[in-house]
Amino acid sequence: MPATSPTSAFARAQAQGEAAVRAAVLDIAAGLLAAEGPAALSMRRMAAVAGCSTTVLYRLFGAKDGIAAALYREGFARLRRRLDAVPRSDDPAEYLAALGRAYRANALEEPNFYSIMHGEAIPGFVPDEASRAEAAASLDVLRAAARGCIDSGAFRSDADADEITDTLWAAAHGVISLERGGHFPGTLGEARFRTLTRAAVAAFLP
């Protein structure tokens, strides 16, 4: 079971409406998946931990496959909210760097969702086209920041914002994956993240 008290979390969410209930259930499901593996994603198991009926889960998610899709989408939705909350800066390059730091912070603070978003935490689950579109949209603010760097002259005028976004995403994900795997302990993860993302950015400098 997750280390937190999921039943009390679910009870508190009930007073806040269906959106809060949905988020609470997804937190519980992500925690169960990380602690017990894919077999824990049964309606009965999740209902028992949440302290609700299976009827509630079927109403919210339809079936077990619906839970998997909802977990995937929720992970990227949380990432998008985190990136959207980064204060805008008059310096396009610094704003882009701040988005990178926020991406890393989100990955480390939401490890259960991050695994679902980028790995094979749920065997056999393949996101549908709509889910993948939502995932891509979560990085729209990063694409806009990349365009800002091009327009300001911080990046080459012939650089492509989508390529910049994909390159930085791949670099960030690679180093974060190693950090989460225990290869970069302590402050080493942050240092390696900074070095690698700077190296990725260098490819687009004038």
UniProtKB/TrEMBL annotation:
Top-level taxonomic group: Bacteria
Pfam family, one: TetR_N
HTH tetR-type domain residues: 19-79
DNA-binding region positions on the chain: 42-61
Assigned keywords, A-Z: DNA-binding, Transcription, Transcription regulation
Entry protein name: TetR/AcrR family transcriptional regulator
Source organism of this protein record: Streptomyces luteosporeus
Source species taxonomy: Bacteria, Bacillati, Actinomycetota, Actinomycetes, Kitasatosporales
